[in-house]
Design a protein that fits this description.
Distance between the termini: 41 Å
Helix content: 55-70%
Number of helices: 27
Strand order of the largest sheet: 7-6-5-8-9-11-10
CATH architecture of the largest domain: Up-down Bundle
Shape: globular
Number of strands: 11
CATH class of the largest domain: Mainly Alpha
CATH topology of the largest domain: Growth Hormone, Chain: A
Number of domains: 3
Strand content: 5-15%
Structural class: alpha/beta
Length: 738
């Protein structure tokens, strides 16, 4: 019973720490798809390599309960140290607050931060396999992971600070240590471990009933934002919001990236008035993500109604708490309605028609943000625009010289807009503003007309004025940008199924660090090149390790299973958000469904003898092939316009079941693989660690490659086919074993 509880605690702590540390890592470095992939890959690789490399050592340890108890004590300390290390890592790298850090330095930081705790967790899994069989250990670890992920993501993060949750996890680790020590025998070593556990418990209790928590939290935040004054820091289920004060200006940082500052009148005037002046008489306006000061500027225009969409209510709540009263007066204006909902979801189900829609959500650096720049979203926006209505979006650019990598991003968005709207114009600058309308002649580059509209509306603008518009809309600058945008674009149109623009956005982001060779190589990656690499890897899988017989086929099959499971999860989450928008608790249900499937699959996979294990393992590998094809067809069907009842079933039944099925197949394979591979009882830890490590390394590749490369370049359909091909090759290897 104690052994089983300890494994559940390992899973609970591992998943909880992963959720917390990845969030904290992204806050420290700013989140995009490459940085998230690098962080998740560092986590999985650290745990996988540790389980793989230290599995042999676990078999040699005599008193395994005592060793596991010591590991739990060390883990309790490492959790705190890792959190403090994440928050101070920018100082170690010599990066100022808000400064963008290059991907190699970010990967270095990820390994430094995650290796100690993840390495220990991987070793603890291998050790646990010796106290019980590997299949049961995997089942119990998955059960703990499911509980940990669900508890932290959907509940604890709402009511507790990150440091407090880490304290809860540390207390769990110490409790598990004390339980294990009761059956670990006697001696001074066991007694010392008990004393150490009790001392650490007492220290946690002291911090809980003293100002120690606040001091430690404050010190760690100061380390992260060194040189800046942190006036508030809070977390929600959506992310972490930090307010920084600097020379009278309050900056809002969301997951480490600045989203807007107050006061910042030049930026606020640009966001609001450049779009509104394109329309001859805007009365009803929709705005997403531009910030409180831009809302204030919009309400200075003679509009009748403004719908402001902000996903996270924490943003508005903190603005109300810390901004000066003159900025908060906007909330008293009866023309303003604030909607705390995903912008895409709001637009999909909203029946209103607008004169102007302003989308200001930053560059599409993640798959989540890319949803606001796709063909499907532009079509939804077109459907809510009145006759002569204007859409405005903005992207990072350059006023005088646009880099080749940045031009790829701008051109891909321009091509998608042109596919949907009859007229598209762009205003050059460090931020390029794109305007689109389906009414010919609705948009203009005539600065005199825009100045006349300013005067007619009685606007008192200090920045967007005649001289500014004359310079910004000069013929030379406009022509230069238009030449770049109208160059032949050979890439795919940015869509939900094939989100190529976030790939280009990440290349543009990388180009800031003067890595021309890396950027050139990434820009050269094409659909054809990926299929050549896939074919080469398939040939290697067919030929490598044939002399090792069954073992030589099972190990790559396990890696393929880990890769497939992570790939399927990425695809399911991306497709769900594209169809339904961000509904956070439902995303939590989908992730929990996967873990539940993992538990049920592992439980079922334990029921077979060694003779039947290989046959079942082959069948599971073939089922992965059919699952990939079924997933592809199902997502295509759900992406079509369907009756509301079918969409409801999709959100509440189909997606959770798809996720659970992927988890079931993955969980089913693990105990079968251990049963097939293990040479005997003396090598249980080594075998369990090897299979677990290979599975995690496959998942690591899935996290890094599927979301960052395969989905944006190949699209969801071809990514599913790629995963199906790898599993088909793995099945063929298993089928042809003599």
């Amino acid at each position: 019973m104690v052994d089983s509880l300890s494994v559940i605690v390992i899973g609970f702590i591992a998943m909880s720490a992963q959720v917390l540390f990845l969030r904290e890592f992204l806050v420290s470095f700013g989140g995009n798809e490459l940085s998230l992939g690098a962080a998740l890959a560092a986590w999985l690789a650290s745990a996988g390599l540790s389980a793989f490399a230290l599995g042999r050592q676990a078999d040699k340890i005599k008193n395994k309960r005592f060793a596991l108890a010591v590991c739990f004590i060390c883990l309790a300390v490492l959790l705190f140290l890792s959190l403090l290390e994440i928050r101070s890592i920018r100082d170690y790298l010599g990066a100022a607050a808000g400064e963008v850090v290059s991907l190699p330095r970010m990967a270095e930081a990820g390994l430094l931060v995650f290796l100690p705790a993840c390495g220990l967790l991987g070793f603890m899994f291998s050790l646990s396999c010796r106290l019980s069989n590997a299949g049961k250990t995997y089942l119990l670890e998955s059960l703990g992971s499911m509980a940990g992920g669900f508890s932290v993501s959907l509940y604890l993060i709402r009511v507790c600070g990150v440091l407090q949750i880490i304290a809860v996890l540390a207390a769990l680790a110490l409790s598990a240590a004390l339980l294990l020590l009761r059956s670990a025998g006697k001696g001074w070593a066991v007694l010392s471990a008990r004393v150490c556990s009790i001392f650490l418990f007492g220290f946690l209790a002291y911090l809980s009933f003293s100002p120690g928590w606040q001091k430690l939290e404050s010190a760690s935040l100061k380390a992260r934002w060194r040189g800046s004054e942190v006036i508030d820091n809070r977390s929600s289920v959506y992310g972490s919001l930090t307010l920084i004060a600097d020379r009278g200006q309050v900056s809002f940082f969301y997951d480490g990236m600045r989203i807007y500052s107050v006061p910042d009148k030049p930026s606020a005037e640009e966001k609001a008035h450049l779009a509104l002046l394109q329309h001859h008489a805007p009365r009803r306006v929709l705005m997403a993500g531009a910030g409180i000061e831009a809302v204030r500027e919009t309400l200075s225009e003679p509009v009748d109604e403004l719908d402001y969409v902000e996903l996270d209510p924490l943003n508005i709540e903190m603005a109300r708490s810390h901004l000066a009263p003159e900025y908060l007066e906007v909330f008293l204006d009866k023309r303003l309605s604030v909607h705390n909902i995903d912008a895409r979801r709001f637009i999909k189900y909203n029946k209103k028609k607008y004169d102007c829609v302003i989308i200001n959500l930053g560059d599409p650096l993640t798959a989540q943000l890319n949803r606001y720049y796709t063909l499907e979203f532009f079509r939804e926006l077109k459907s809510i625009l009145r006759q002569g209505g204007v859409l405005s979006i903005s992207l990072s650019s350059s006023e005088n010289y646009i880099r080749r990598e940045n031009a790829l991003l701008l051109r891909s968005i321009y091509a998608a807009l042109k596919e949907v709207f009859g007229e598209v114009k762009a205003i050059p600058g460090d931020t390029a503003y794109f305007f689109a309308s389906d009414t010919t002649g609705a948009l203009t580059y005539d600065y005199k007309l825009l100045v006349r509209r300013i005067e007619e509306r009685g606007l008192r603008l200090s920045y967007v004025c005649g001289a500014y518009l004359f310079s910004r809309l000069s013929a030379e600058r406009v022509d230069y940008l238009e030449r770049i945008l109208k160059q032949r674009y050979s890439g795919p149109l940015n869509s939900d199924e094939r989100p190529i623009s976030y790939y280009y956005a990440n290349i543009s982001w990388l180009s800031r660090f003067r890595h021309p060779l890396v950027c050139a190589l990434l820009a050269a990656v094409t659909e054809r090149l990926i299929w050549v690499v896939v074919a080469a890897l398939a040939m290697v899988m067919l030929s490598a390790g044939r002399k090792r017989g069954v073992r030589g086929a099972v190990v790559p099959a396990c890696a393929t299973g880990g890769f497939s499971a992570m790939g399927f999860q990425m695809i399911i989450l991306l497709a769900f958000q594209s169809i339904y928008g961000i509904v956070f608790y439902k995303l939590g249900v989908i992730l929990t469904s996967f873990m539940l499937g993992l538990v049920l699959g592992a439980r079922r996979g334990m029921n077979f003898s060694s003779e039947a294990a290989l046959s079942r393992f082959r069948k599971m590998q073939l089922i992965f092939v059919f699952y990939a094809l079924f997933l592809c067809a199902t997502l295509r069907l759900l992406a079509l316009r369907q009756p509301d009842i079918l969409l409801w079933f999709g959100a509440n039944l189909f997606f959770p079941l798809l996720s659970a099925a992927a988890g079931y197949i993955t969980g089913y394979q693990f105990p079968l693989a251990n049963n097939i591979y293990s040479p005997g009882p003396s090598a249980v830890s080594r075998t369990g660690g090897l299979i677990y490590g290979v599975d995690l390394l496959g998942s690591c590749l899935g996290a890094l490659l599927v979301s960052a490369f395969l989905v944006p370049i190949l699209g969801i359909v071809q990514t599913c086919l790629t995963i199906a091909l790898f599993n088909l090759v793995a099945f063929y290897r298993l089928k042809t074993i003599v």
